[in-house]
């Protein structure tokens, strides 16, 4: 059945939608942190459908909220009042750390970042933006121009004029071997240079992920973006925190990833886990920035009744079960396991990340050259052992591990045992 589906998939879907695994799997059911394929095989889901399944699969509270809403009305229109949309916006603004915050809902992270850049360029009357190398912000015409990763940005032409700051793995390239203090000094010097020479200081915004997701869970030292913001703020340059992967407690340290960075964002974009898998995303912005658009704007499906109901139920579950704290505790358990496995394996260059967002970067010994084949083999072996994880990084040589935030101690113990087997010096 799956073979036939693979052929049909290849015939009618784009070749650049790459499927994981030599023998791609068809996931047909989920329960908690487990998913089941079409043959009934069970896997521990440690990628959560690219971090979209935040509180677990088939969580009764979320399923109930979705089905109750679906049985009442699936879609009305954003032209009318929608209570779950307002409810979710109230929860998000309250938690945002942004004064007088307002929310615009969309259906994808790409569209959320598009909205953020539209707002920033309108508010600041400038088309100049600062972005970080090795980032990923989406697949639209605008977002590929601020996405600093050659495998995801086929063209860089858009209405934006983009200046770049360094970012990405610290195992090679311009950031290789830098201490935290040197990393910080380099970022500040590069930023001063951008403001002085490239852009005459007339910049609308900086857009950055607190931890780069697609880029392979790379992160700057704590407080880094705060230092940059101290240089940017006197110019009125806005700070956009792309929290599509880092939001909602995933890092274990704060509700948003920006909190360990010491920044006060002007805008936050969110997506992925917010609706526990429903197509729900958006931008939270300071009220005067949000309202500066001045024209009509609408997203037909953004924050629709069913998606927003899933969002409210997911948010309440997250808070009720204190999943941020769970991310911190279970993340520490996972990290210990990964570091122990890495200590026996010289092809692992680094274990990094925060909370339940941990990456394992494979390298070719002392040269630290990326080793994507080893990452691939580990991905396949983990799957054979019943564990689904992700892959990323500029060269595809980083394993990305990001289970639902509700993962239990027993499930983590099971996963760590598999990692020991998969990573423990056999690569
Ligand atoms: N920003 C970040 C940080 C992401 O990881 C992604 C998706 N991988 C996006 C934006 C785009 O989100 P979407 O795929 O929902 O458009």
| Number of E-type strands | 16
Strand-pairing-aware structural class:
alpha/beta
Supply the number of helical segments. Answer: 12
Helical content stands at: 25-40%
Give the quaternary arrangement of the chains. Answer: single chain
> Spans of 5+ residues with little confidence (pLDDT < 50)?
none
Q: Specify Rg, calculated over alpha carbons.
A: 21 Å
Q: What overall geometry do the principal axes of the alpha carbons give?
A: globular
Ligand kinds? 4'-deoxy-4'-aminopyridoxal-5'-phosphate
Distance between the termini: 32 Å
Q: Would you give an account of this structure?
A:
The model has no long low-confidence stretch (mean pLDDT 95). The chain is 36% helix and 17% strand. Helix 7 (224-232) links the parallel strand 7 (205-208) and strand 8 (238-242). By secondary structure, the protein is of the alpha/beta class. The chain contains twelve helices and 16 strands. The longest helix is centred in the C-terminal third of the chain and has 20 residues, at 323-342. 50% of the residues are buried. It binds 4'-deoxy-4'-aminopyridoxal-5'-phosphate (PMP). Residues 108-110, 113, 136-138, 209, 213-214, 242, 244-245, 271, 281 line the site of 4'-deoxy-4'-aminopyridoxal-5'-phosphate. 4'-deoxy-4'-aminopyridoxal-5'-phosphate (PMP) binds at residues 108-110, 113, 136-138, 209, 213-214, 242, 244-245, 271, 281.
């Amino acid at each position: 059945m799956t073979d036939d589906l693979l052929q049909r998939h290849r015939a009618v879907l784009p070749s650049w939608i790459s499927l994981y695994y030599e023998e791609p799997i068809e996931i047909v059911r989920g329960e908690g942190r487990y998913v089941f394929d079409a043959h009934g095989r069970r896997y521990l889901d440690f990628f959560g459908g690219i971090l979209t399944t935040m509180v677990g699969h088939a969580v009764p509270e979320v399923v109930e909220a979705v089905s109750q809403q679906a049985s009442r009305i699936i879609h009305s229109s954003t032209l009318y009042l929608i209570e779950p949309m307002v409810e979710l916006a109230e929860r998000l603004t309250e938690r945002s750390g942004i004064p007088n915050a307002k929310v615009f809902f969309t259906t994808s992270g790409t569209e959320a970042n598009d909205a953020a850049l539209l707002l920033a360029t309108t508010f600041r009357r400038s088309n100049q933006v600062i972005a970080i190398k090795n980032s990923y912000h989406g697949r639209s015409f605008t977002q590929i121009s601020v996405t600093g990763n050659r495998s995801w940005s086929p063209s860089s032409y858009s209405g934006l004029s983009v200046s770049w700051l360094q970012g990405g793995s610290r195992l090679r390239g311009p950031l290789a071997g830098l201490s935290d203090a040197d990393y910080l000094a380099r970022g500040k010097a590069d930023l001063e240079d951008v403001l002085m020479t490239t852009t005459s200081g007339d910049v609308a915004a900086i857009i950055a992920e607190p931890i780069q997701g697609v880029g392979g869970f790379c992160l700057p030292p704590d407080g880094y973006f705060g230092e940059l913001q101290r240089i940017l703020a006197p110019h009125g340059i806005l700070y956009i925190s792309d929290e599509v992967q880092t939001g909602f407690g995933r890092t274990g340290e704060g509700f948003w990833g920006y909190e360990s960075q010491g920044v006060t964002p002007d805008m936050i974009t969110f997506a992925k886990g917010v609706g526990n898998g429903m197509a729900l995303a958006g931008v939270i912005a300071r009220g005067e920035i949000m309202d500066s658009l001045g024209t009509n704007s609408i997203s037909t499906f953004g924050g629709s009744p069913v998606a927003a109901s899933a969002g409210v139920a997911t948010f309440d579950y997250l808070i009720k079960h204190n999943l941020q704290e769970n991310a911190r505790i279970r993340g520490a358990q996972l990290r210990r396991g990964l570091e122990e496995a890495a200590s026996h394996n010289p092809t692992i260059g680094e274990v990094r990340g925060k909370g339940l967002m941990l990456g394992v970067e494979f390298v070719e010994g002392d040269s630290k050259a990326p080793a994507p084949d080893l990452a691939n083999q580990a991905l396949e072996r983990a799957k054979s052992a019943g564990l689904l994880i992700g892959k990323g990084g500029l060269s595809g040589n980083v394993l990305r591990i990001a289970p639902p935030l509700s993962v239990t101690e027993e499930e983590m113990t099971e996963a760590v045992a598999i990692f020991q087997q998969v990573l423990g010096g056999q690569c």
